[in-house]
Amino acid sequence: MRPDTSNYREIFLNDVPMMDARAPVEFVKGAFPHTVNLPLMSDIERQKVGTCYKQQGQDAAIALGHQLVSGAIKAERIEAWAAFARANPQGYLYCFRGGLRSQLVQQWLKTEAGIEYPRVKGGYKAMRTFLLETTQQAVEQCDFVLVGGLTGTGKTDVIAQLANSLDLEGHANHRGSSFGKRATPQPAQIDFENRLAIDILKKRAAGHEQFVLEDEGRIVGSCSVPLELYQGMQDYPLVWLDDSFEDRVERILRDYVVDLCAEFIDTHGAEHGFARFAARLRQSLANIVKRLGGERHQRMSALMDQALAEQEATGKVDLHRAWIEGLLREYYDPMYAFQRESKASRIEFAGEQAAVLEYLRQRELARA
């Protein structure tokens, strides 16, 4: 049998598949990529065993666990574990601390299914700690630079073209603005942090010690940027991305109307997708009503309703430009202009996309 492991670095660098033996409620709160939840106990069973442990001690709790997971239930779970083990011979199993639950799964796999399968020492808790430390160490040891710019300049496009970038919005599955929600849900906070840490780990292993980030707020949708990283972002140097007003309008039209509508239809089907897309767009505008003011919100909302009606009837998206232009001129641009002024002392370069990309690539080479 392959030995049990505590080499968390190799697990995450190689996207090793893992079987999570924790209860579903634990898995939903946070897990790792390439992981399947095949619990030893259901949420209710875990709760009963936990109560027994508190009231009667470990031996009674273990006895109750064996009683609850027996017979057909036990056979069904062992078969699921065995199927995973056969499909992923290079994988591992784990529980919360690498203790009783994963040891029992390991033991039953061997005695009942004839499969010897290794587990992760220290379990979820140790791997989670390793990833938290990965991000902390990067903040302490690496060089960071931010990409800023007005709404629609294509900051995300720049991030996507750099080998040393960290895509916070991508990991959060959110575009970072009031209109940034996607058709699919955001990850749990812990999942977001884990994805970011694994990205950092892989890029450092590839030799990158300088990272490019989009200039974000503390919250990306419902996901919070790790505190130590966000604190650093208040002082990191800034590269400012410029683009014409017309190009920005077209980019926003593409991202927030054309592509987002297609994403909703792909996710929810042709029958319900457009209606959900339209509702999301209207809700996004409603979310900033207090900052817009009643008159501007009413005006933008009417323009949006006209655009959505035409889009649904004909597929044309031209009318969306009216509310996009209004929002940029009257809301986003003044806000970002103020931010640019407040960060002016940290701006070390400004230019359009090609120039910014070239500058950032040369910047990494110069610091290598």
Topology:
Layout: H1 8-13, E1 18-20, H2 24-29, E2 35-37, H3 43-56, H4 58-68, H5 71-87, E3 92-94, H6 100-113, H7 123-141, E4 143-149, H8 155-160, E5 165-166, H9 168-172, H10 189-205, E6 210-214, E7 219-220, E8 223-224, H11 227-233, E9 238-241, H12 245-286, H13 289-292, H14 294-314, H15 320-342, E10 347-351, H16 353-367
Parallel strand pairs: 1-2, 1-3, 4-6, 4-9, 5-6, 9-10
Antiparallel strand pairs: 7-8
Structure, explained:
With 368 residues, the protein is α/β, with parallel strands linked by helices. Helix content is 62%, strand content 10%. The strands form three sheets. A five-stranded parallel sheet has the order 5-6-4-9-10, sandwiched between helices. A three-stranded parallel sheet has the order 2-1-3, covered by helices on one side. The longest helix has 42 residues, at 245-286. The model has no long low-confidence stretch (mean pLDDT 94).
Question: What's the end-to-end separation, in Å?
Answer: 42 Å
**Proportion in helices:** 55-70%
**Strand portion:** 5-15%
The whole-angstrom Rg is 25 Å
Q: What are the segments in which pLDDT stays under 50 over at least 5 consecutive residues?
A: none
| Overall average pLDDT | 94
The chain-level structural class is alpha/beta
**Main β-sheet description:** 5 strands, parallel
Give the neighbour order of strands across the main sheet: 5-6-4-9-10
Protein name: tRNA 2-selenouridine synthase
EC number: 2.9.1.3
Family: Belongs to the SelU family.
Subunit structure: Monomer.
